[in-house]
Amino acid sequence: MKKLIFVGALLCASVAGICQPFWNCTNPGQLLPDGWDCRVYYECDQALNPVKHYCSAGLYWNCVEQTCDVREKVNSACPCTMVRF
């Protein structure tokens, strides 16, 4: 049973690392792409911690415009667009 709990904790820790943005927060209010899910972006809070946000249905994070946008307008240079839509 202890091994099962340990494996579960390791799995949760490794998944949590995947879900973080590519960059560290350097300024409050800074917006960062998820890097894995194009529907997700992060906003840096006053303590420089990334806070996860989701775009509305059918919209994706546009790194250039710094807003959620339709797929056709999302810049292919953004890290999140390399992985999946």
From TrEMBL:
Pfam families per the UniProt record, alphabetical: CBM_14
Alphabetized GO MF terms: chitin binding
InterPro entries per UniProt: Chitin-bd_dom, Chitin-bd_dom_sf
GO cellular component annotations of the record: extracellular region
Superkingdom: Bacteria
Record protein name field: Uncharacterized protein
Native source species: Chitinophaga solisilvae
